[in-house]
Design goal:
By secondary structure, the protein is of the alpha/beta class. The protein contains 37 helices and 23 strands. The two termini are about 45 Å apart. This is Glycosyltransferase subfamily 4-like N-terminal domain-containing protein.
Length: about 900
Amino acid sequence: MTLSPFYQDIREQYDAFLQQSARKFNPHDTLRIDLHCHDYNSDVPDELWGRLLRLPETWLKTEELVGALERAGTDLITITNHNNARSCWALQRENPRVLSGTEFTCHFPGDELSVHVLIYGFDREQERTLNDLRHDIYAFCAYAKHEDLPTVLPHPLFFYTHGREVDPEILERFALLFERFEALNGQRGYWQNLLTLRWIQSLTPERIDAWSRKHGINPYDYCRDPYRKSLTGGSDDHNGLFAGRCGTLLEVPNLKQRVEAGESLPALALEAIREGRTAPYGFVGEEEKLTTTFLDYFAQVVLNMEDPGLLRMLLHKGELKDKMLCLALSNLLQELRRHKYTLSFLETFHHALKGRKPSLLINLGVSREFKPTLKLIKQIARTQRKEPERFPEILREAIPQLHREISHTLFSRVHEQLSRIDHDSLSDMPVDELVRLLEVPTHFRALFSSERSNGSDMSQVNLGQLMDKLTFPALSAGVLAGAAFASTRVLYSNRGFLDRLAGQLGATRHPQRILWLTDTFVDRNGVSSALRDVLTQVQKHELPIDLLVCHPTLKSQPHLQVIRPLTAFHFNQLGEQTIHVPDLLEVQKLFERGGYDRIICSTELCMGPIALYLKQAYSVPAWFYMHTDWLEFLSRKTAIDHHAQDRIRRLIRAFYQQFDGTFVLNEDHREWLIGPDMALPEERVKLTAHWAGVASEVASLMPKPHNEAPILLYVGRLSEEKGVMDLQHVWDRVRSAHPGAQLWIAGSGPAEKKLRKALPDATFFGWVEQSQMPQIYQQADLLLLPSRFDTFGCVILEAMSSGLPTLAYNCKGPKSIIKHGRSGLLAEDTETMAQHAINYLSDPAYQGRLRVGALARCLDYSPKRILNDLLTDMGIDESVKWPKSEGVQPLNRLRKV
């Protein structure tokens, strides 16, 4: 997998900083402490869902955390639980190396903004006062300064905003309130830690003085020395997995002599923190640290969760939406607890993360197909136990492998289970039956038991039986994906804030780069053809776009990312389409390491949900590019009734509404999307277009001599929804008026056999490669397009680029390109189409005019203009786009001429 220059650069910059920090102090005068870690006394989470479900942030016992800290080589201990120091007080009775510490949740008065503040060295009376004052951060920090209690602002770029955007100006207040900042947080990635470092380094005395005047805040009320900003580190560990592996180096001059003289380690540490003699140590986690933390947390939730109580949940503070989601999650977790294999796997994985190998019963009971999964779990446990320094590295490799192994088995069982729904195969199932199966019964228990609803819905698939069938490791595929999503969501939930800050700092700014997802790229259809043309232009002009496709044999190339599928599903109902299913974690890693910050998706089935997953996980904008009107497709190709059509429309509407914008290829489609049926916001639906991908070198604009037989041409997929059966009537009428005329057909598809029978005198070329089509266009006199389904019509532009006019129905895509009587011909019905063809072939002068008009119209569809407009609509800066030529109108203006 190729790493983006941005991804490589931020790693190199931050690793260089950590190496410099490690050499800052004399090792003989240095103490090591993890200033940010938690155990089970962090029992009241800040997150609403945690409070609704009555879940603590961790079940980690104090002695387990202390053991992890000691194994990591820390010299003294602090446990910074939320709003309490109970663990510190209990430890101090027996351990003289404990420094009291707490992570308080503090609030800005009159503002929906909360931050965490670490504080050390207080006694029990001071703890009570701090708890009283934490609802006013100014009073809290003033008291801490008065009592000489050092504070640290952890993860300065991550705080709680309660759903609203926060201006980076809040950081100016942080600079006035604090003199110590956590520059290394073990649960944050390279970009956030580096941004934090660069922001702290930008805090000059001049800026602090200016902000003091601006906000009317005297920094000396809160800081001993507001101009001295010191840096700390902490693991932010909640599970005991990485505790002590990130932390803070404390410089204590003459350390050995002072300890021998009887000074306590907590007192010496407190002095170093107060004086700013600190430096972070450790390593930055990538996705593996936080993903593992969430994975272990979820395992413990399933193992330990108790019923939160329905009335309690409904009467709790919070929005109804959150309560309903928590109710659904609670029911799902309770169902998981009913399945012994699921519980067994989660418990085994949880123990492996602690270094405990699977039990003998697990080893003996696992089937052969799951041996590779168990081997990976054993590897995790062995590494944690014997080579803890390699633990993050093994996790980075093992978790994706674990997900892939389990997913292979999962999809194998899914294929087996789906094949039993109709005792045949999924590919032959009628579309209306598939639509009905999308329904979920209101009686949830029917999904997990032998009970069945009266209708045809998802209760026909017994999820409880399916879980048992998959056995204990298979369900972890969803758990792994959920953990990966949750960890990334936490890291990037305030992405807009980070982007603005990076812009202000003028450094470490995330590049503007698009990942374009598609399920089809090498198939014989118009979408694949259009996307290959996009790739050609992107490669030629180095545009900030990469295409991503999942395919078993296709090779990656510049601007084309290819990943191998986990499995594939074949859909006869969708035009013999094969959908390859990618590994979700592999896509997620590619998005992260490729340095992308926005998404386009061209297909709905597999890559569509993945695009929405990435949008939510990374807090990036996502657009959908509509190539196909599926509602029209299904209504023409299937016999579904209006009730099924309405359900499909609602499903499609719900899907498209999740995107930040939609690109469409014609005005009719746009009006439908912003109309009452779909109700998409008008400003979020943008017109775009394709262009002629392959043009002939010399376009012949002269009509043929009278003695040459005229040639009518059809190019495209041979399927009935494309209107190909209309060709028979048109051809019969044309041949009666022009007996010597020929009909050429280039393409293949399911209706080919039927069409050959209806048109025995036509010449069938089969599928013709796009590069060879100009030769055929040059010989033809008129292109016939009898489809009422096409949203655009790339074939029209390809023909126009050869000076070949098109005769099409007056609908959707074709009418947005063809100007009737000037660059082509439009017909209302089959009879009119036939008459237009007859008249056209009878008038050589008319043919010449339309050939000139067709070539001129094709020039309006410039790839430079189209792609520049698309990049503009997606918010890409001018500096990374194609330069616009002077006098070239934007596409949207041309389309209305």
